[in-house]
Amino acid sequence: MSEIINLRQFKKNKARASREEQASQNRILFGQTKAEKSFAKEKARKTNSFLENNRLEPVSKQDAED
After folding, report:
1. How far is it, in rounded angstroms, from Cα 47 to Cα 62?
2. What is the Cα–Cα distance from 32 to 41, expressed in whole angstroms?
3. Which one is predicted more confidently, 64 or 31?
4. CB neighbours of 46 closer than 8 A, spacing ≥ 6?
5. How many angstroms separate the CA atoms of 8 and 10, rounded?
6. Where is the composition biased (Basic and acidic residues) (predicted)?
7. What's the pLDDT band for 2 if we cut at 50, 70, 90?
């Protein structure tokens, strides 16, 4: 005689496995490690700071409106 299977639990386990597989694929495609994110953020901050500090002419409110 075969084993009795609860279909509700089977469906939930199948959906859970499907979601986990999709999440794994998304982590590979879109994921960045925390170190990579912090490195990119720090690099952008330093670049912006460098550009602001080495601006040839200070930005005035009147120039920004034109």
Report:
1. 26
2. 12
3. 31
4. none
5. 5
6. 54-66
7. confident
Identity of the amino acid at 43? K
How many Å apart are CA 46 and CA 40, to the nearest integer?
A: 10
Q: What are the Cα distances from residue 29, in Å, to 17, 33, 57? A: 19, 12, 42
In which residue are the tokens 């490690």 written? 33
Q: Which residue has the tokens 């982590």?
A: 27
Q: How far apart are the C-alpha atoms of 36 and 30, rounded to whole Å? A: 12
What pLDDT sits at residue 57? 84
The DSSP annotation for 40-64 comes to HHHHHHHHHHHHHHT-SS---HHHH
